[in-house]
Amino acid sequence: IIPLVVYHGKDRWKIGTTLGEMIVGYKDLPEDIKKFTPNYEYLLYDLSQFTDDEIKGEAQLRILFTTLRDIFTKDSKSLQDSVFRAVSYLRELDDKKTGIEYFETLMRYIFNARADLTRADFNEVVKKIETTYPEGSEVVMTLAEIFREEGKEEGILKGMEVGAKQGKIEVAKNAIREGMELGLIEKLTGLPKKEIGKIAKEIEN
Hints:
Elements: E1 4-7, H1 31-34, E2 43-46, H2 59-70, H3 76-90, H4 96-113, H5 119-132, H6 137-177, H7 182-189, H8 193-204
Parallel strand pairs: 1-2
């Protein structure tokens, strides 16, 4: 068995390459205990250090390693370039169905792992895919529809939150006009006492 670590974090790997270096207090263990504690060396592949030329192998493997390498280390524009490079690798696959499935997995992973990517970034990818990898156009449009629906759902939930908050404010206003104590209004509406006081001042003015 050869232990292997494939790393693709945001920062460079700074831990040693033996298990003992990862165990807190390993060096201070008594020798009669240390000899029963495994301290093997493992092979480390820090993907962030690999160039495009150094990433070799079948198309799927190159896509995987390129994406893992760039997912956390690139800005949105550079990451788009990585996506387009991955798409160029997909064209090498003879099995188009496999390529499309792999492409869908790739896109879902990227846009879930990188929450900072915007709708504009996604649209740029869509435009490029439509011209360079038409087989993936349907997948992209399906994902676009999913994101669109998620956006609608988020908007509805946000609207409900705003509506609920406004409803509480109206209840607080009516209660203040009826002379109810601020502490009781706070319990009734769940609004902070400071905000209720502000509403009360607005009513007085």
